[in-house]
Design a protein that fits this description.
Layout lengths: L3 H4 L24 H6 L7 E5 L4 E2 L4 H11 L4 E5 L18 E5 L5 H5 L25 H12 L5 E4 H5 L5 E3 L4 E3 L2 H5 L3 E3 L4 H12 L13 E5 L7 E4 L25 H13 L22 E5 L2 H6 L1 H13 L8 E6 L2 E5 L8 H8 L6 E2 L9 H6 L2 E3 L1 E2 L10 H5 L4 E2 L2 H14 L6 E2 L1 E3 L13 H6 L19 H11 L6 E2 L7 H4 L3 H10 L4 E7 L3 H7 L4 H17 L5 E8 L6 H13 L8 E2 L7 H8 L20 H11 L7 H10 L35 H5 L3
Parallel strand pairs: 1-3, 1-4, 4-5, 5-8, 10-11, 11-12, 15-19, 18-20, 21-22, 22-23
Antiparallel strand pairs: 2-14, 6-7, 8-9, 9-13, 12-13, 16-17
Helix pairs in contact: 11-23, 19-21, 22-24
Length: about 700
């Protein structure tokens, strides 16, 4: 990471250690007895988490705890407390500086409920896999209990749950738009993203007795305010991207309630008068024509009350949020919630390679806390022998939260740092048998990939570097990754290294040498890959490449496997009921699966996660990938349970349990020719007594999406 704006940022390695003589603990304390063994009379910072405590660099609680410890702070852990009272939140006493609250590695609602809102029976991040050890909306509940436990102690919330709820957001589980988690939790500050940089700065400034209410300038944070600070220029969101005709019964750009008064209210009325828009007006004021200092400009989003009342304004706000996510050019955002405002600073500057190396070099025990004894923690079992080589994803898939949480600028570790971690696993992990289960990250093959120009990167406002095609400014050279694989395989005691992270096949096809390396050495017979769909309409709403790209990768992978003398298979993943998908699209996907002899064991139905672009499509019926107006592109989304069930059943066309539903649907869709015993049919008939009406045009055995594809 060598962007110019990084040079202006204080490195996390430059802060003086708060307690110079503090030594690393074998494990961060979870009770007062452990504190006493360390010679502590109090904790500076207490982290409250919805996950069981695992001291491993793949667990956010473990990373932030060790990062703060390295800065000289005494850090205690309260993992999965009983949230029905404040008693467990007093277990380590009163923290000297603040409580840090996290839901854990997963959003608590995603952790608890399936895409059909059914309660899950287990929890991979809990000892014994036991469900029910954390509350719904854990960040909010934990923050409120921290307040009860010790009044006056600052509360800072974070994790993916807080990141995705930092502004007003659609909540799938209640089927409504909810407020930002900040006012609901009553926290003093929210940190979004991986957060090492901002949490270090916050901790040192609090330790220097600076009030948290004065810390309004830290990137990657959100806070509540009464008015826009003096010296800032306010830009209405409609001046950045036109939302169309405003709903008549509410002022969507009001900044203050009538009795609030003050300069803030005056500015609001002026901006509202300036931003009245005609229906279907698609005129956009070029940003270059707005003579404002970007570093002191805040964009006013439609208020919580407005986006809750008007789905079109919700889509507009979602689009604006995603336009302001590049740390090189993002501006602050503000959104009114009642009489107060949620203020979002621009995203934090990504970590440099040296900073990334320092985070992963900390003295993790790489084990669960000893209090859990022999109880298994399924998520830990899955990743205990894995190595994270990078962060971020520039894919921008609309249904995915990785880019929204970690950003789209890739942060890579050095090869030496990665090799050292593999050696530590080999030498210090009990029971290690020589197999590294994964050498990857959010995306397996984005290691050291970046824009060819730091200036272009800092100015870019595209949501994806690979959609609708690979950007000409993107470096797609896989050579550093190939070199890393080869170096790691040569290490003494390392028998196998698998690649289990998600693979961007549209990038992989740019490097035949990488595919050969992968197929020859790093696939254990099966490689999971996610084309997600075959049809152009849903793929365009996902921002995923066309199925031709998958076909090309499949051909190259099969050839590479054959050359290596191996018979290996791709396991494709697909999403049912995604916005932009109709019944015919899912039928064409089912026919493609049958033609290619794929029989998915498990299927994934679209789950609208907070803040995702696809969730805005689901809620609003509009496409935020394009400018929003009252008559801009509408997006159909399957929402009814029966239709969602049908889409999942089409993915599992081979399961006899689904055949009655599929027969009924195929007849309604006027495709009875697909019911029968011939190879062209999708499912068999019920029996001899079932009458199938003949069709004048026999259905081609070529999947429909192939016949309709533009050349």
């Amino acid at each position: 990471m060598t962007s110019s704006y990084l040079a202006e940022t204080r490195s996390i390695l430059e802060w003086p250690k708060y307690r110079p003589n503090l030594r690393s603990a074998p494990q961060l304390p979870m009770n007062k007895a452990e504190m006493q063994k360390l010679g502590w009379d109090s904790c500076d910072i207490i982290i409250v988490s919805g996950d069981a405590y695992v001291d491993h660099p793949s667990f956010g609680m473990g990373v932030i705890g060790r990062v703060l410890e390295a800065q000289g702070f005494r850090v205690g852990i309260i993992a999965q407390p009983n949230w029905k009272s404040a008693d467990d939140f007093r277990a380590l006493g009163k923290p000297n500086l603040y409580f840090g609250v996290t839901a854990g590695n997963m959003d608590s609602m995603v952790n608890h409920y399936t895409s059909e809102r059914r309660i899950r029976s287990d929890d991979s991040y809990t000892a014994g896999g036991q469900a029910g050890k954390r509350p719904d909306r854990a960040v909010t509940v934990y923050a409120q209990r921290c307040r009860e436990a010790f009044k006056g102690v600052p509360v800072i919330i974070g994790s993916i749950e807080a990141s995705l709820r930092r502004i007003a957001h659609y909540d799938y589980w209640s089927d409504t738009v909810r407020r930002s988690v900040l006012p609901d939790s009553k926290a003093d500050m929210l940190v979004f993203g991986n957060a090492e940089r901002q949490i270090i700065e916050i901790s040192h400034r609090l330790a220097a007795d600076e009030p948290i209410k004065n810390m309004t300038d830290i990137r990657g944070t959100a806070l509540m305010c009464r008015e826009v600070p003096v010296g800032w220029s306010e830009l209405n969101s409609s001046e950045v991207d036109t939302p169309g005709e405003l709903i008549e019964h509410i002022d969507p750009y009001a900044m203050a309630t009538p009795d609030n008064g003050g300069d803030c209210a005056t500015k609001s009325s002026q901006k509202t008068a300036q931003s009245k828009i005609e229906a279907n007006n698609e005129v956009q004021i070029p940003i270059s024509h707005i003579k404002l200092n970007r570093s002191k400009t805040v964009i006013r989003l439609p208020s919580f009350e407005a986006v809750k009342a008007d789905p079109v304004l919700y889509a507009h706000a979602s689009r604006l949020l995603h336009l302001e996510t590049n740390p090189g050019n993002a501006r602050a955002l503000v959104q009114q919630h009642g009489e107060r405002h949620v203020w979002l600073n621009p995203p934090a500057i990504p970590l440099s390679t040296a900073e990334m190396d320092s985070v992963f070099a900390l003295p993790y025990s790489r084990r669960p806390h000893s209090d859990y004894g022999d109880q298994r923690i399924p998520a830990y079992d899955m990743i205990k022998h894995s190595v994270n080589i990078m962060r971020g994803c520039f894919g921008g898939c609309t249904f995915c939260s990785i880019t929204e949480h970690e950003g789209r600028i890739i942060q890579s570790r050095s090869e030496d740092s990665i090799i050292k971690e593999i050696e530590n696993i080999r030498d210090k992990t009990p029971g290690f048998a020589g197999t590294i289960s994964d050498l990857g990250g959010p995306t397996a093959n984005m290691y050291r990939l970046a824009c060819k120009s730091t200036e272009i990167e800092a100015a870019c406002r595209k949501p994806s570097c690979v959609f609708p095609g690979i950007c000409k400014n993107l470096n797609t050279d896989h050579t550093p990754l190939i070199h890393l694989y080869r170096h790691a395989r040569q290490l003494r005691g390392i028998k196998r290294i698998f690649i289990a992270s998600g693979l961007r096949y549209d990038l992989a096809v740019e490097s035949p040498e990488y595919i050969q390396e992968l197929a020859t050495h790093h696939v254990g017979g099966y490689l999971k890959i996610a084309p997600e769909h075959t049809e152009n309409e849903p793929l365009s709403k996902m921002m995923k490449p066309g199925i031709d790209s998958f076909d090309r990768f499949k051909t190259m992978f099969n050839q590479a496997s054959k050359k290596a003398g191996k018979k290996q298979y791709l396991i494709p993943y697909f999403i049912a009921a995604h916005p932009g998908t109709n019944d015919e699209d899912m039928l064409n996907l089912a026919l493609w699966l049958k033609a290619n002899k794929f029989r998915p064991d498990q299927v994934q139905a679209f789950l609208p996660s907070p803040m995702a672009t696809a969730s805005a499509m689901y809620y609003s019926g509009k496409n935020p990938l394009r400018k929003i107006s009252r008559k801009s592109e509408s997006v159909f989304t399957p929402k009814r349970k029966k239709q969602r069930d049908l889409h999942k059943a089409l993915l599992r066309y081979h399961d006899p349990k689904n055949w009655p539903l599929l027969r009924e649907a195929l007849i309604k869709m006027k495709h009875p020719e697909l019911i029968g015993n011939t190879p062209e049919c999708l499912i068999p008939p019920t029996g001899r007594n079932e009458r199938i009406r003949p069709t004048s045009k026999p259905h081609s055995s070529v999947p429909r999406h192939r016949r309709n594809r533009k050349k």
